[in-house]
Amino acid sequence: MSSDSDIKQESVRLFSELKNVSLRKNVKWTLEDCEKIAPYTLEINKLKKEKDAVILAHSYTNPEIMYGVADTIGDSYALSMEASRVKAKTIIFAGVWFMAETAKIINPSKNIYIPAGHAGCTLADSMTGEDLSKFKEKYPGVPVICYINSSADVKAYSDVCVTSANVYDIAAKMPGDKLIFVPDVLMADNLQAELKRRGVRKEIVSTGGSCCVHDKYTEQDVEHLRSEYPGIKVMIHPEARIEICRLCDYVGGTGGMLKYVAESKDKTLGLLTEVGLVNRLEHDNPDKKFIWNKGTCAYMKRNTLLNTLSALQNPSSAQTVVVEENICNRASECIEKMFKMTDR
């Protein structure tokens, strides 16, 4: 059990990380808020050492996960790369199921646990490997690119995996004049438009679904930001509808947005993306103001300090990530090809 002095010291550490971050809309973290979570972060960080475990956290998880217990915070690509390098026996993956699955595919000898259990993703859940196999029959010989937000069996039926950070470059390098892109039909539209802008002549055919956060943004969301904050730069994720993306100043994934903000001279920026990234930007850029109106992934927010603690203490079967060997091997080829085709 942690002593009062340990809790006080941990609270001060947490507050130094979270003081510029929103606890909820228009409310920042306080020292008192940090005192409430300090016993849990202390216990989790102690158990990590005892269990030879590391915690990888996606940028859409809660701030107390990212800045209280995570060893690495990142987007899908960065976390995939980190998972491939982990030496520890166990990876606790604070994210959604397809991400933890990807970590298992990349580093199959590790114990992989996800605190939230089978936390889904509307993109990854929009199609199965069998769905993709049937779709491929309509386009024999056409290469298949799958977005990383896909299940292991979809990756197993694909030629190469991509993220929002490398999709345009990898698509341009693929052979032929036609590509199948799954499972994000909205990103497929943005991919087609960007390839055309670059002078790359390829037809994109797609099937699947959309992100339950980014597909909700409308013209009115952009108009509201511009009317309330004249001259504001607005950023959006390419998982949004193309007509909304065209109204914004920057279109890119989480890594791209972090870089854009760090290099921007603007002190106020508008964000049409998940609130977890807003929290990261607040943490990294305390001198800037971020205007965000909506966008919360309920699946990501299922990862909490309590279920992270349980995943370390006594992981349940629902928290344990298992990928069938044949699927794992085939999906691994798809992911490894992404690493090889990505400019380091």
UniProtKB/TrEMBL annotation:
Pfam families: NadA. It comes from the Bacteria. Keywords: 4Fe-4S, Iron, Iron-sulfur, Metal-binding, Methyltransferase, Pyridine nucleotide biosynthesis, Transferase. Its cofactor is [4Fe-4S] cluster. One of its GO terms (biological process) is methylation. Pathway: Cofactor biosynthesis; NAD(+) biosynthesis; quinolinate from iminoaspartate: step 1/1. Its EC number is 2.5.1.72. Gene3D superfamilies: NadA-like. One of its GO terms (molecular function) is quinolinate synthetase A activity. The keyword ATP-binding does not apply. The keyword Translocase does not apply. InterPro entries: NadA, NadA_sf. This is Quinolinate synthase. The lineage of its organism: Bacteria, Pseudomonadati, Elusimicrobiota, Elusimicrobia, Elusimicrobiales.
